[in-house]
Amino acid sequence: MLRTPLKRLGAALLAAAGLYAAPAAAADEPAGPGWTAEPATDRPGPARPYFYLAGPAGTVLEDRLALANPDDREHTVTLRGADAHTTPDGAFAVRPAAGSGGAGSWISFGGAATVKLPPRTRAVVPFTVTVPPASPPGDHPAAVVATEAGREAGVRVHLRVGGPALAALTVEEVSVRGHGAATTVDYTLVNRGNVTLTPELALRAGGTFGGPRTLPARALPLELLPGRRARLSKPWPGAPAFGRLTVTLTATAPGAAPATATASAWPVPGGGAALAGGALTALGGTAAAALLLVRARRSRRSRRSRRAEPYARPPARTPEGERAHEKDDRHELTGATR
């Protein structure tokens, strides 16, 4: 996946200039500002930070890109449209030219896809956006990308197709990791609607041995595109060092209902030693259980052995036996020979 200089586009970048140019790739390219790309404007004043186009499905929209070359040499710039998306960490990025199947493929420069810029000149290049008839309503992120010898400059295109707009945001996969001042709260924001969201996040946290702490809602440095998710982290340096920790995250965005998620954790100082102690305890319990099992087996075997042996009764005495027994007794008592 190719990332252009648009990849860290947030609210601050949008307000900056609308121009995102990468450094020259060729080592022999002379130093200097090089060419620039931005939305064209017919009125004096600050440049537009991005393109904004809106219309129903099946329509053709038009706008213009301004290229300026302040150098003393000519530049040849190639223009194209590109799909845009949000990376897993919330960065804004555009896809390479190959395989573009989203709104980037709707952008066309016609015969002006390659532009020669003489020294110290400015060119205005028109382009069109042809929205397919079956396009779903909502935001379709894209960008206009200008390229020369490995150097790229991109301008974002805010494209909205007419129809019902749905703003929907969820907070998922909340977890707490670390201990004490190194505690961090991880979470995932998911845009489940069809419009781009600029979320804000509020945090309420506390523990068994620490009172609740609330951080008011603050804007996050990202724009969450439709259908995309971002995995983010928030430090919690004031987390209690002992006991149960509980955090509740509430995410909001214009037009979307608040989304809330809660997670709990039991941090243990010296987690490795605690784990080892637990393992030893478990091992001792296993040994004791094994010893009891052996004793129980021996006891069962002994009972089975006693049940298997027949009871030895003394032989019944007949009169002859009694008299013989008495004779034997007399012999033994008198010492007489037989």
Describe the secondary structure blueprint for this structure.
Layout: H1 11-16, E1 20-21, E2 36-39, E3 51-55, E4 60-69, E5 75-86, E6 92-94, E7 107-108, E8 114-117, E9 121-130, E10 138-139, E11 142-148, E12 151-161, E13 169-177, E14 184-191, E15 200-207, E16 210-219, E17 229-235, E18 245-253, E19 256-265, H2 271-308, H3 319-334
Parallel strand pairs: 3-12
Antiparallel strand pairs: 1-12, 2-4, 4-9, 5-6, 5-8, 5-11, 7-9, 10-12, 11-12, 13-14, 14-17, 15-16, 15-18, 18-19
Structure overview:
The chain has helices at about 10-15, 270-310, 320-335, and strands at about 20, 35-40, 50-55, 60-70, 75-85, 90-95, 105-110, 115, 120-130, 140, 140-150, 150-160, 170-175, 185-190, 200-205, 210-220, 230-235, 245-255, 255-265. The longest helix is centred in the C-terminal third of the chain and has 38 residues, at about 270-310. The protein has three domains: about 5-160, Sandwich (Immunoglobulin-like), CATH 2.60.40; about 170-265, Immunoglobulin-like (Sandwich); about 270-305. The strands form four sheets. Strands 1, 3, 5, 6, 8, 10, 11 and 12 form an eight-stranded mixed beta sheet that branches. The chain has about 350 residues and is of the alpha+beta class. A hairpin with a 6-residue loop joins strand 13 and strand 14. The N and C termini lie far apart (about 120 Å).
